[in-house]
Amino acid sequence: MAMHDISWASTKREMHMDTTNAVKLGSTGPEVFRLGLGCMGMSGMYGASDDAESVRTIHAAMERGVTLLDTGDFYGMGHNELLVGRAIAGRRERVQLSVKFGAMRAPDGGWGGVDLRPAAVKNFAAYSLKRLGVDVIDIYRPARLDPNVPIEDTIGAIADLVKAGYVRHIALSEVSAETVRRAQRIHPIVDVQLEYSLASRGPETRLFPALRELGVGATLYGVLSRGLLTGSKPSASGDFRAWLPRFSGAHRETNEASVQALHRFARERDLSPAQLAIAWVLARQPGFVPVIGARRVAQLEDALTALARPLSQEDVTALESQVAFSGERYGAEQMNMLDSERP
């Protein structure tokens, strides 16, 4: 066995002994591993991806104890669900599938709004079950709020799927505290998926306190701010980050100083930038679950090491004093559509 493997085996044993690596999603949800694996990037959202390496990454995550796999029926127009289905074939009992739905796609890859009508909900679920090759979806959530459909109607439709045995738990994504409260009156909500990182701290003010009050968990995506915090820059064709404010123009130039400060801080503590960014989220929100968008085994292993390298409160405070990021996470039109950003 190579020294790297010995080191990793030791870390793996330590993680299994540490019960803090198991987190319950809200008061009514399942218990999951402390980090989840987000699979969106495996279907072209950040440029070309390698299916074989993606499957290896999912298998490696499962071997290392990761249980929550996050996907969406609109990632790659079904490609991502087919990929995840292929990866979990014969291993279904080892994972919990979190599936987003509702975003409409066009043949040219464009986006066509959101459809959360009850009939559409059940149609989306039927196709997801087929592509994933499973009988039941563990956690089912609309990707965004549909302004034309009351949230009560959407949740009622998913509740029908729960009663019929096709869905185990209901969750939400990028919604306000008021929407969560309305949804909870129809059926228990286990978690809300939100973007959260050193560069995206908006949920701290209202949403996180409301979720804790309601007994609802959170799965946190974008913890590396789509690679901004690690120094990644959009370059490949099809990389949607090229249109995001933080990666362009004056914002990119301003953010570069904070990225460099974060990298220096990481080097001083013998951490990679990704490990530092993940450790910060773990320290800041210990009851919630970061979802890591690793596309390669090496990225996954780097991320999981953060579990064994926690930050002290002094580290958290010091890091926050050295960074300040500018630019919204999406363009103005998309920001206006986010229920989670409403005052």
Automatic annotation (TrEMBL):
InterPro entries on file: Aldo-Keto_reductase, NAD(P)_OxRdtase_dom_sf, NADP_OxRdtase_dom
Domain of life: Bacteria
Transmembrane segments: none
GO CC field: cytoplasm
Entry keyword set: Oxidoreductase
Span of domain NADP-dependent oxidoreductase: 34-321
GO MF, one annotated term: oxidoreductase activity
Pfam families, alphabetized: Aldo_ket_red
SUPFAM superfamilies with a match to the protein in the record: NAD(P)-linked oxidoreductase (SSF51430)
Identification of the protein by name: Aldo/keto reductase
Lineage: Bacteria, Pseudomonadati, Myxococcota, Myxococcia, Myxococcales
